[in-house]
Amino acid sequence: MVEVLLLGALAVAAASLDAALDGGPGPFRQAARLLVMERRMTPRADRPLTRIGVVSLPVAAALAALVVPFGGHAALDSRVGVVWFNAMEVVAWGSVWLAGWGVNSAFALVGGYRFIAQGLAYELPHMFALMTAALAAHSLDLRVIGAAQGGLWFGVWMPVAFAVYLLSALAMAFWGPFGAPLGADIAGGAALELSGPDRLVFLAGRYGLLAVASAVAVPLFLGGGDGPLLPAWLWSAVKACAVLALLVWTRRWSPVLRMDRFVQAAWTVLIPAVLLQMLVVAVVVVD
Fold first, then answer.
1. How confident is the model at residue 150 (pLDDT cuts 50, 70, 90)?
2. Residues 6+ apart with CB under 8 A from 172
3. How far is 285 from 148, CA to CA, in rounded Å?
4. 197/218 Cα distance (integer angstroms)
5. pTM, full prediction
6. CB-based contacts of 153: which residues, under 8 Å, 6+ apart?
7. From the centroid of its chain, how far is CA 70?
8. 161 closest CA partner among 222, 115, 120
């Protein structure tokens, strides 16, 4: 379970970096404040659904973390790690939607539906990016994919798939340009009515998704634990930190995209581009 603890540390690092960039209080101070805050519930809210949505978001991130290798080791010995990771994203879809639906608030519901629309837009290019790396390695095991890159990282000769994966990682964590589900134009969206420990758990799940997506990029496109001098697990951690820092930083310079424009771009640009990348990889692998 060391790998899961490392990913938990990455999530805390993401929250710390985000707070530092905003000039606000650190994650531990925010956590302490939310823990002692009284829960606020709207009239006729469906509390069980809300709690399921809130709790299942960090649970999805934790379950996805089980198949993430640091070096050549993962907490869960799975030969279909790519499929498992992708399945946990679907759990996150349901989590955000339930959190928005259950509180019986118009803006929160809009935020939940925005995430469903965003998920439908990014999921296909994301899945094709995952399959491109798996196709090149002839495996769905993240450890095998990382080991198959042999000095030439997939991110170098699959730049389109790598770029699409990074964009979909941001969308998966509804972060930066894809933060519309929590947008200011709907007063905070899916998390609007969440307060106290509920809000803390929900935000922890969001940072957890961001950390897991950053860590999965390492075996998929950055050679896993490949690197000189340092042990493999440490190289994996260093690369994951670099990807995480890049993703967190995007919120500082990129405006939130309108949902309709993102959906249009996903279907007309991202999907054709990543399919073309997959075709190139297929031709190279067959040859």
1. confident
2. 89, 92, 122, 126, 209, 213
3. 12
4. 32
5. 0.92
6. 221, 222, 223, 226
7. 17
8. 222
187 conformational bin, left if phi > 0, alpha if psi -120 to 50, beta if neither: left
CA distance 65 to 71: 14
Sequence-distant (6+) residues with CB within 8 A of 182 are 111, 174, 188, 189, 190, 191
Count, residues in the chain = 287
Cβ-based neighbours of 118, under 8 Å, separated by 6 or more: 171, 174, 178, 180, 181, 259, 262, 263
**Separation between Cα atoms, residue 148 and residue 132, nearest integer Å:** 13
- In DSSP terms, which residues pair with 21 in a beta bridge? none
The CA angle 10-192-94, to the nearest 5 degrees, is 65
Q: For the chain, list the strands marked E by DSSP.
A: none
pLDDT at 276: 95
The type of residue at 194 is L
Q: How many Cα atoms are found within 13 Å in the side-chain-facing hemisphere of 58?
A: 18
Residue 90 structure tokens: 């679907």
The answer to whether 282 and 135 are in contact (CB under 8 A) is yes
pLDDT at residue 189, rounded to an integer: 87
Determine the 3-state secondary structure of 194 from DSSP.
coil
